[in-house]
Design brief:
UDP-galactose 4-epimerase, domain 1; three-stranded mixed β-sheet; 2 domains; binds nicotinamide-adenine-dinucleotide
Amino acid sequence: MVKKKILVTGGSGYIGSRICLYLANKGYDVTALCYSKIPADETWIEKMDKVLIGDVRDEQFLQEVANYEYDILIHLVSLDHHQSNGTPSFVSSVNITPVWSLLDVFSKKGLKKFIYFSTAQVYGGLKDEVVSENKLLSSKNPYGLTHQVGEMICEYYNVNSDVDCHVVRLSNSYGAPIFEENNCWWLVVNDLCRMAYNQKRIVLQSDGSPLRDFIHGWDVCAGVQTIIETKAKHPVYNLSSGITLSILEIAEKVEKVFAQRYGLKLPIEVTVSGQKEESLKATNYKIDNSLICSIGFKPKWSLEDGINDLLDYLQKGS
Ligand SMILES: NC(=O)c1ccc[n+]([C@@H]2O[C@H](COP(=O)([O-])OP(=O)(O)OC[C@H]3O[C@@H](n4cnc5c(N)ncnc54)[C@H](O)[C@@H]3O)[C@@H](O)[C@H]2O)c1
């Protein structure tokens, strides 16, 4: 069987480095497009078909890369939600224009599938509801807005080119980083595990009521592989665990796993006292993953397993 040739932009990023490794281990020919430098991990590099260094804003560079004639392109470059509050011209030059440039260049070189990582933040504020892909988009911040525009570019190419574009609306990923330098410790589950391990306490920056759906990084990879292999033409998939928890509930899970491993019960401190019970009752939602499940995806990682894996990582590092 001919191996599929896959290009991953943001290839050394938090999600990209894991997707590259996962797909290479599954037997695909993976090219990791990294931004400023080659990752230091030799074992990871050896698994890649190619590791390229370049800027996705450079259309000349994209033309050269497109000459390798990829079957599939997975686009993972974006500023994070803090950086996306920068000047509109800069933010759109990184988050939006490259989506268009990549599709413009690669659609002329036989690309078959384009998998675009968007975010569940395009839905805006969520109430007590089941959030399916049909929900009207209503981004509440520039990060969500730029992904909403990226999605529209994909929609345009779905209609006007031979490329199958699939948008992935990711909830929140977590898990130990593949590369030490990955920007991932601001993610709540990662942050709480690191705080528990290093400081022996869990301090929340809120009353614990905000809700999150966390999906483990390896489940994200499995979801991507499902989209690579499917013949279904759904243009948009929610990629989530389908389980919504409050940050307090996540902290309690970290506390429980920590106690089981180390026999130590950690204190959980919330920032705003007195509102906890009330606000926890306030709202609930579910980011519906039934569409991607209908094409063969099944999340495998429980939050407890993911917390154990993070604590293993932290333990090894110390
Ligand atoms: N991490 C999450 O939980 C999460 C949740 C929802 C959506 N997403 C989306 O998934 C995608 C990947 O997220 P991540 O967490 O891996 O982010 P990340 O910041 O770790 O990865 C982005 C990568 O893009 C690279 N990059 C930046 N500018 C570039 C440029 N001009 N040219 C080439 N490369 C450039 C960065 O060096 C980085 O390696 C993003 O689109 C993000 O919005 C992530």
